[in-house]
Write a structure and sequence with these properties.
With 300 residues, this protein is an alpha/beta fold. It is built from 9 helices and 11 strands. The strands form 2 sheets. The chain has a 9-stranded parallel β-sheet with strand order 1-5-2-6-11-10-7-8-9, sandwiched between helices. Helix 7 (202-212) runs parallel beside helix 8 and helix 8 packs parallel to helix 9. The longest helix has 18 residues, at 80-97. It is globular and about 55 Å long.
Length: 300
């Protein structure tokens, strides 16, 4: 029943119902470079959906697409290694049922099982899958000490995801190492810094990413929320001053969700206790609206 004005909570339906979009919560906080409570993010996002309306005054359209909520993957207390299989399987099941899956983390370590779930769900080899990251960091830390939220891209490369299948947008100065930058360039990643986003515009950055992955059959998008300027999203431990403007982030998400090859979009690295206001929660919930708006703009 509507709460009095059309809002996103109206669109959430039972996991068993038919819907074009599915949602999977992955409340993973293990292995974070900065320990925190990213595990609280999926529940707070769901609770905040009632504060985001469905009508877009700029387009004159009201969101209609329902979301089958598969709930949270039961991974409390598990390590990243232990949680990888359950998250992958939940994503795979959702991708096989729905045209688009929203994966709500949790820290950035959920991106790797999400990409594997896409490959398995779409019945593709990993080298047919593309990855676009909206992130301040390369996420290419060494894996010799194990998996963490700082190395999902490195781990996917080691799993067999070609560097040419990776496009990274929003990389921040003084937040990465020369070795990671060199490895990304030599591996064939498209690298778009935050300065390039400001100079060329977010539309061009996203267009370059999609063109870079034109050979890929399916695409996963990692919305590492630390790409947003820290003043506009204080609830991300890895965010930096000078990051992406929230409005550019929204444009990027909507544009990418409109691409039919995009089968999974994740939201990661939101640590709710870091923000005593509701700014981060409202921004994260708006991400859902932008995903739906883009999805509804896909060609018939």
């Amino acid at each position: 029943m509507s709460s009095g004005w059309p809002n996103l909570s109206d669109l959430i339906i039972d996991k068993g119902a038919n819907a074009a979009v599915g949602m999977v919560g992955a409340p993973l906080d293990a292995g974070s470079v900065t320990p925190g409570r990213c595990d609280l993010a999926p529940a707070l996002l769901r609770a905040t959906l009632r504060r985001i309306g469905r009508y877009d005054v700029e387009t004159g359209r009201e969101l209609q697409t329902q979301i089958a909520d598969h709930g949270d993957v039961p991974i409390a207390g598990l390590s990243i290694e232990e949680a990888t299989g359950p998250i992958r399987d939940a994503c795979m099941a959702s991708i096989r049922r729905h045209e688009l899956t929203l994966l709500v983390g949790g820290n950035n370590a959920v991106t790797r099982p999400g990409a594997h779930g896409l490959a398995d769900g779409a019945r593709l080899a990993l080298d047919k899958v593309g990855l676009i990251t909206l992130a301040a960091h390369f996420d290419m830390r060494d894996t010799s000490a194990g998996l963490g939220n700082g190395n999902p891209v490195r781990a996917l490369r080691e799993d067999g995801l070609p560097g040419a299948n990776i496009a990274q947008i929003g990389l921040a100065p003084f937040a990465n190492s020369a070795e990671m930058h060199r490895d990304a360039n030599e591996g064939g990643h498209l690298v778009v810094t935050i300065a390039e986003v400001r100079a060329e515009g977010i539309d061009r950055a996203v267009g370059r990413a999609l063109d870079h992955l034109r050979h890929c059959e399916a695409i996963a998008v990692d919305c590492d929320i630390d790409v947003i300027d820290r003043g506009q999203f204080p609830g991300a431990p890895g965010a930096r001053p000078g990051g992406m403007a929230a409005h550019d982030f929204f444009i990027a998400v909507r544009t990418l969700a409109a691409e039919p090859r995009v089968k999974l979009i994740d939201l990661t690295e939101w640590d709710p206790p870091l923000d005593s206001t509701d700014l981060s929660a409202l921004t994260a919930a708006r991400w859902v609206a932008e995903c739906l708006a883009g999805f509804e703009a896909r060609p018939d």
